[in-house]
Each structure stands twice: as structure tokens, then as C-alpha cells.
Amino acid sequence: MPVKLVVCIGTRPEAIKLFPVVHALEADGRFDVEVWVTAQHRGLLDQVLRVAGIKPAIDLDLMRAGQTLTDITTAVVTRFGEALDARRPDRVIVQGDTTTAFAASLAAFYRKIPVAHVEAGLRTGNMFSPWPEEANRKLLAVLADQHFAPTKRARDALRAESVPSERVYVTGNTVVDALLSIKDRLPEFREANAEIAQILPPPGSKQRIILLTSHRRENFAGGMERIATAAARLALRDDVFIVFPVHPNPHVHKVMNARLAGHPRIALVPPLDYVPFIYLLTRCHLVLTDSGGVQEEAPSIGKPVLVMRDTTERPEGVEAGTALLVGADTDRIVREATRLLDDDAAYMRMSRAHNPFGDGRASERIVDLIALAHVAEPTMRAVS
Ligand code: UD1
Ligand code: UDP
After folding, report:
1. Over 50: is that where the pLDDT of 384 sits?
2. For domain 3-173+359-374, is the CATH number 3.40.50.2000?
């Protein structure tokens, strides 16, 4: 009898980082796989599911405009729990540090259904940065029984919290699997990328593209405004063109539209589908972001990334010299971006393509490790 697995997805980054795992599990006859979405995100999630060809078996459709953390947590614990009671899977797989990942794992734990955690062990050491994600990750370390750490550093963080080492595995981050699965095929997606391509300065133009994204809750109390001011100051230069796919969170939307709309060298665009977003990443000169996933993708494509946060749970990029923490600090953002625009040597130092977060084979390792937990004689591929 195949092992009954439920892959739980709530938001855009979970869908991006779990679609390679879903595809790998579906290709393996040892498993009967269902994707259940809480739809903590709606439009952002559906964009990725469409590109990845994933049709959820259950869609809880939970997103509400301006939802609070309590709203999402209670709704996921209740509704995901009811679905578990009805279908009784052998294992639940969650990813990352969202409220969906935490609350779905809590619902599974209440029913003694084992949980595998993909992207386990990321830590800043500060419970309020990012908030509430750092707490979600720590809670997941307690609730899950399989911990797939993307890097050795993440593995060590879990060991330091006394997570049993025989349950912690270094697999690489599935974000690299997702990225590599489309990066080399970008020319095939010419049509999908046409809309964003036509607003960009043409290749060879003196205008350098800065890709900007921002959505972190801890940047809501003033940080968004400081980021917007930095963008406006950078866009005073006529050799710069800023593209900002604006996250639909009402707080982000309101601040960014009020401060940046109508600027001739800033394009505020709706969230991009994953493929056009990666295309934009390949076309840009540098990245300003507070996103977790974008911090991981930029080094793979060799783009310098200025991280607009005070802490990062992904220091591998900083240590490798391709990412720099600048906080949500207007002067620092402008100073470091200006250095990268004006100093070719500084730019060259930060634009080395490398993959500190994975090798593109994380999903296949995860599949084998899940088999190890349920199937008598699994065929193991290399696990680092
Ligand atoms: C969530 C995650 C965060 C992750 C981010 C990825 C939590 C607590 N936060 O933050 O870790 O980095 O997703 O993007 O789990 N909205 C839409 N359409 C969408 C998605 C969101 O309109 O497709 C709006 C809604 O008004 C929603 C609001 O954004 O209420 C906030 O969404 P929510 O998931 O609560 O928080 P994010 O800031 O997106
Ligand atoms: N992304 C996307 N379209 C966009 C912005 C981001 O597809 O307009 C992708 C990006 O490639 C990355 C992921 O979304 O894989 C990051 O999601 P987000 O920044 O929302 O969340 P985080 O990673 O910070 O949790």
C-alpha cells in the first residue's frame, strides 16, 4: 500500500519551494500524494500552482483581506484539523516558517500524525526579527519528527536546540531545485515574460535595473516608509530604473503607492508570476529586498543583494560576499546601492554566481528520507 502523504501549502514561497517536492513524490510509486492548500494567500498562491501544474485535492480558501495572525492560526488549526480527521494521512509535509506551516503542524501533532519540515533550522536568534516567523520555526522544530535542513548551519542550529540528530538531515534548499528547473528554460517562456520585458529599459541601455521587493511585518512600523524614501532617492539618478512588484498586503500597498506611484523611473507593478519574476532577476543589476526566498535566488543568478533587514537567517549569502545586510535604513540602502552602481570593483566582488543554499537535488533527497521513515527497503540516493 502506498504511503498516504499530504503536502500542505499556504503562501507563495511555500508553493515555490514545495512544487519540486510534490513533483518528485508524484513520480515515485511508493507514495499516494495529495496537496492541500490553506490558501492563506490567494492570488499569489494560485499563480504558482498554475505554473507548477498542481491541482489541490483540498482548498480551504482561508485568506481574508487584512487577516490577523490569530485569524490565520485559528482557522488553519480548525479547518486543516477537520480535513486530517476525514482523510487520516500517514504524514504531513510543511515548508518554512509561515503561520500555515506552524498551525497545520500543530493540527497534525494533536492527531499524532508525523510531520516532515522542509527548510528546517533557519534562525536569526531574535524572536522579533523576522516576526512571527522566528517563533514559527522554533515551534516547528518541536512539533516535527523529520527536519530537512537546507545547510549544515541550519542542521547545527537544530542540534543546539536538542532536536534528536538522527531526525535532522542536510538536504539543500528546494528553492534551488525550483530555480534551476526554470532558469535554463527562460527563452521558452518568451511570451510569459513579454509583459514585464516591455516596461524594462532595453538591454544595453545606460539605465541599470534595480529589483525591489518588500513585505516583512517587522518593517511595518516605519520601515516601509524608510525603504520607499530610499527608492525615491535612488531614482533621482537618471541611470537607474527601479522595478517593484508590490506585495498585495494592504499595508505594503498603501505605503508604497502613496509614496512612489507616478515616479518616472520607478515601476510599481502587481506581483509577478514566478517565471517572469526570475526573468526580471536575470535582467536586473542589483536586488533590494527583505524577502527570504529572493535572498536565496539572487546569488544563484549572480546578482548582488542588499537585504533590507537587521538580521538574516540566511547568513550563507552574506558570508560568501554576495549579500549585505543594510536594514530598513534609508541612508545605508542609498549608500550601498550607490556604491554598487558607481564602483565596478565592488560590484564585481558581489556578483559572483554560486549556490550556497543547495545544489538542485534537495527534493530527491527529501523523497528518499520520507521513504526511509515509512517504507521497509528504500533506495537511497546520496544525502550530504
Ligand atoms: C506571509 C507570511 C510570511 C511570508 C509571506 C510571503 C505569515 C505570518 N507570514 O506574509 O512569512 O514571507 O507570506 O509572501 O505566515 N494578500 C492578498 N492576496 C494574496 C496574499 C495576500 O490580497 O495572494 C493580502 C491579504 O489582504 C492578506 C494580507 O495580504 O490578508 C496578508 O497576508 P498574510 O499571509 O497574512 O501575510 P503576508 O504578509 O503575506
Ligand atoms: N516572487 C514571485 N513574484 C514576485 C515576487 C517574488 O514569484 O513578484 C517569488 C520569488 O521568486 C521567491 C518568492 O516569491 O521565490 C519569495 O516570496 P516572498 O518574498 O513573498 O516571501 P519570503 O520568501 O520572504 O517568505
Report:
1. no
2. yes
CATH homologous superfamily, domain 193-351: Glycogen Phosphorylase B; (3.40.50.2000)
pLDDT tens profile 3-53 = 999 999 999 999 999 999 999 999 999 999 999 999 999 999 999 999 999
In the three-class reduction of DSSP (H, G, I as helix; E, B as strand; rest coil), residue 222 is classed as coil
How far is ligand 2, taken at its centre, from the CA of residue 221, in Å? Answer: 21
Among protein residues, the one whose CA lies closest to atom 15 of ligand 2: 293
Residue 338 in grid coordinates? 550607490
- With a 6 Å cutoff on the Cβ, whether 291 touches ligand 2 is yes
pTM of the entire predicted model: 0.97
Grid coordinates standing for 130?
Answer: 523576522
Q: Which atom of ligand 2 is nearest to the CA of 245?
A: 8
pLDDT tens-digit series, residues 317-334: 999 999 999 999 999 999
Query: Could you tell me whether strands 31-37 and 286-289 are parallel, antiparallel, or unpaired per DSSP bridges?
Result: unpaired
- Cα separation, 314 vs 323, in Å, equals 10
Query: Which one, of 162, 118, 121, lies nearest residue 138 by Cα?
Result: 121
Placement of cell 533621482 in the chain:
236
Q: Which of ligand 2's atoms lies nearest the C-alpha of 178?
A: 15
